[in-house]
Amino acid sequence: METGSSTPAGSEENFEDFSDGTVDYQEVEEEENKHSIIQEIRNELSPEGASSSNGFKKSESFASVRSKDFCESMEDLDVSPDDYFHDKEWIQKRKHIFILSSAGKPIYSLHENEGKLATLCGTLQALVSFVQANNDTITSIVADGIKFVFLIRSSLILVAATRDNIAVQQLQMQLNDVYNQILSTLPHMTKIFEKRQNYDLRKQLAGTERLIDHLLVNDTSNKKITNNVFTTLTNTVQVLPLSTAMRNNVTSAIQNNCSKIRDLVFAVLIANNKLIVLVRMKKYSIHPADLRLIFNLIECSESFKTAESWTPICLPKFDMNGYLYAHVSYLADDCQACLLLLSVDPNVFFTLSDAKKKITEKLRRSHCLEAINEEMNNRGVNLRTIGIPEMRHFLYKCKVSAQLLCAELTHPYSSPSEFDRLYSIYCDMYHRIHNNLRPLKLIYHVGEKELVLAWVAQAYELYAVFEPTIDKNLVIKLVNKLVRWVEKEQDILFIKNHPNF
Amino acid sequence: MKAIEAKVVILGSEGVGKTSIVTRYLKNVTSSDQGPTISASFFSCKLYLDGVKVKLQVWDTAGQERFRAVAPMYYRNANAAILVFDLSQHKTYRDLKMWAQELQRNVQDPMILTVVGNKLDLHATRTVSREEAFLFASSIGANYMETSALNEQGLNQVFLRIAEGLVRLANENKSQTLRRYDSSNSISAYSNVFADDDQAFHLPSVHLGIPVEEGDVHSSDVGRLETPSWSIDHIAHGSVETTGWCCY
């Protein structure tokens, strides 16, 4: 057994943020309770605002205490003798994710029922506390060809296990996304665990599993092949291509109708997992990881299509200690773009509802709805139409804005197994380029089935996959052609600045 | 008094059909799987009752456990609550007691409570008897009705009864949060689109269909599937004001 562990400080280095993140995650965690951005905004906006929110908080904690049915949750935990260790199908899964409480209670498993994994979770918890006893933190171990990667947070232990050749950092990033997803629905989780260390979180999480599954499962498992998975890999978001004039129209429609609403922090318009416009309160911005949580929530929740919703949501990178209140609605029946208006005030639903109606009307008058609809079916850059058919697929990450541009997935990567292979290639390349010990600028790799180029320039990172037979000179020519094309079209493909209200 | 505006909250366990009830009543949509509600959705509708315009702001809340902590946000200042359970799932019925207690403790103003046993279409497998549910409803001062969102049975009655109760409440002048207006055009507090009266439906105050009265309980303890004498075409539907899409 090979043990790779490092000091807590060392493990934090793995979470390098490639974008200029607003708030560093670990810092926030340590400063918990000391500093809350949401409180800050409330106080800034209205001196009496801080007190008005207390009324709600009291009843909130009242309800959450009332609803805990402790006895029942204990019964669910009965250790069952027939666990999954003899289930071939379970063992052969490519990736497993387990979440347990720091007391070793199973909370979530990607495959099958976590309730039957009490023994496994006990073992994992023992490993964690064994290393912790030496004032160290376990990062990963490899046993029998399976890589176990650990992420330890104040009240949870998250573990990924896989036979694939995926970097530890990659898996930790995924685990971190999962942790953020949990925080996003249960920001008060830490407090629950403070009160009762062996509380069974599963009851509170019911309904969130869907969101976690969706974050983790490679899209191929539901036979849907999309570029969305690459945003997690590269820590970016995708942007809906839109002409500058149209995007400005959308922006001003939002600004004109929202500028007078004082407590509004963000307005986010998205369609098909792509960002259309983000308007923000001065000084504040949304981290791409938080945006991905929003995308995930919208993608997983059909119910938002039925009616306007008003939901509290926690954006952990923005402020992990409190809720923002989100007015969520689709623009119109004939335009399935989703608008989120995020406020710190829980009582402004009707103001936002009104603003949303006006925004939709304005967008319809200025023909923005049609423009958005036209682009909604855009599944990525078509390499044939831009004259680079020898390139099979690429990822272009704009580093400043943390935005990702992808090629349309076509043959041969349109079958699930080949797409999985492409994903592994990109994972491998990404890991080698961003290796902590020896970061690289350029990789040129000729494989049996394809030729891969990874290139880190000052403003962007480019990962491109070619036919295996073409020569190096042509590759260089084609890459230059692509980069020039992207530069020419950048105002349409990326959003340079997120405007203020 | 010509018009009242009231906040209605729908509460109940996961999967009992809260969203189905409100969407079937308001939109007449048939989509069966909308997925679970996230926190709460908002609908609005209005009814006419003896010349009084009753505008309902309906909050359809999520049943999932994790949203319980935020429920107070939606039932605070509510004037009416619809407590929904699934007739074929006894657990969902037991959960209502918790909701009833929570409302009693946290809402000061008088409220129109309605207990609704949904999924009457599954009456063959019902686990909650009509008598039991009726007695519980009476014990918390609520009306009891049985509905089938699937077959659109009893939905109009639920909302009509609530509207009646709200008018009564407004006449008694006991509720501080219930908004009363002397002109039927005053309900435009937060939106300009509601002025279009054709969208609302006018009904005399009638007692039709499913509301379960005491005598009824004693006559039989077996759930009966009521087929109303009117068909769905005879009654105009309360329409959801999906306002804002200006080009119809």
TrEMBL record, chain A:
Listed InterPro entries: FUZ/MON1/HPS1_longin_1 (IPR043972), FUZ/MON1/HPS1_longin_2 (IPR043971), FUZ/MON1/HPS1_longin_3 (IPR043970), Mon1 (IPR004353)
Gene Ontology biological process terms, A to Z: endosome to lysosome transport via multivesicular body sorting pathway; protein targeting to vacuole
All copies of domain FUZ/MON1/HPS1 third Longin, residue ranges: 391-489
One of the Pfam families matching this protein, by short name: Fuz_longin_2
Residue stretches making up the FUZ/MON1/HPS1 second Longin domain: 263-360
Location of the region described as Disordered in the Swiss-Prot/TrEMBL record: 1-34
Gene Ontology CC: Mon1-Ccz1 complex
Domain of life, per lineage: Eukaryota
Residues annotated as domain FUZ/MON1/HPS1 first Longin: 95-215
Family to which the UniProt record says this protein belongs: Belongs to the MON1/SAND family.
Protein name: Vacuolar fusion protein MON1 homolog
Organism: Hermetia illucens
TrEMBL record, chain B:
Keywords associated with the record: Nucleotide-binding
Signal peptide residue numbers: none
Keyword Nucleotide-binding: yes
Pfam families with a match to the protein in the record: Ras (PF00071)
Domain of life of the organism encoding this protein: Eukaryota
Molecular-function GO term, any one: GTP binding
InterPro entries: P-loop_NTPase, Small_GTP-bd, Small_GTPase
Family as reported in the entry's similarity comment: Belongs to the small GTPase superfamily. Rab family.
NCBIfam families per the UniProt record, alphabetical: small_GTP
Protein name as catalogued: Uncharacterized protein
Organism: Hermetia illucens (Black soldier fly)
Origin organism lineage: Eukaryota, Metazoa, Ecdysozoa, Arthropoda, Hexapoda
